Every structure is written in C-alpha cells, then in structure tokens.
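Data deposition worksheet. Section B asks for the primary sequence of the deposited chain exactly as it was used as input, without tags or linkers unless they were present during the calculation. Section C holds the resulting structure in token form. Section D is free text for depositor observations; keep each observation to a single sentence. Incomplete worksheets are returned to the depositor.
Section A, Depositor: J.P.
Section B:
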Amino acid sequence: MYSIIAGILIFASSIYICIAINNIYKSRCDYLMEIPRFINFCDGEIAFYKLTIEELYQKYSENYPNSLIIKSIISAQDNINFSKEQKIVEQIIEGIKTLDRQSHKAFFHSMTDMVNLEIERAVNEVNVKGKMAKRLSPLLGLGILILLI
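Section C:
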C-alpha cells in the first residue's frame, strides 16, 4: 500500500519537475527576446531625446511596466537562471554610460547581433532540452512507479 502511494508521489513530483525545467528554458527565452526591444528603445531615446540612463529606466518602465529587464535592474539579486542574460544587460548599460552618443549606433548593432545569436541558442534549447524534459520526466516517474509496485 505504501509503495503505491510513494510511487504516485514520485510520479507527481516528476511531472512537477518537468514543468519547472520547461518553464526555466521558456522564461530564459522570453528574457532574451526582450533585450532587442530594450536596445531599440535605448537607441531611439538616446538619439532623439538625449536622455540619461536614469531617465531611460523611468521611461522604459512606464512604457513596459512588466519588463523583466527593469525588474532585474531594480532588484539586483543574482538569479541563477538569468545570470548570462543579466550580464548582457549590464554590458549594454555600461556601454550606454561610457560611450559617447556617436558610437552608440555601432555598439547597439553589435549587441543586437550578439543577442540574436543567444536567442537562436535559447530557442534551440527550448525545442530540444525543454521538450525532452517534458517528455522524459513523466516516463521516468512512471518507471519508478512500476518498479515500486
């Protein structure tokens, strides 16, 4: 009796784990998809309005209130899932602070190219690793359930 209950709990937890793994890959992809929008916004605002970095934060958060980028900038805690993406955003912010307005265009273009490569990798990971975890974790839980019975 206890082995059946334990097997069912292991099966349910494996389904929960597969959903969590898939969501990590999807949220990483969503975070990366937002970075080109942030770059284009900064490029336009700096070129036309000559805004400072604090004014950029404020205006971007007004236009996109649920932005993952602004949330990660405001709460400066290190998120293990988004550490690579946060470094990209920090690199963009440092480039905005240190470069003059003439060299921003080339900087933003190079950062957009780099982010597009990361987006391709992230989409590939979602399609390969996320789907694999989604399919194999319940099978693993089912296998353990059968072994316990």
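Section D:
The longest helix spans residues 2-49.
The mean pLDDT is 88.
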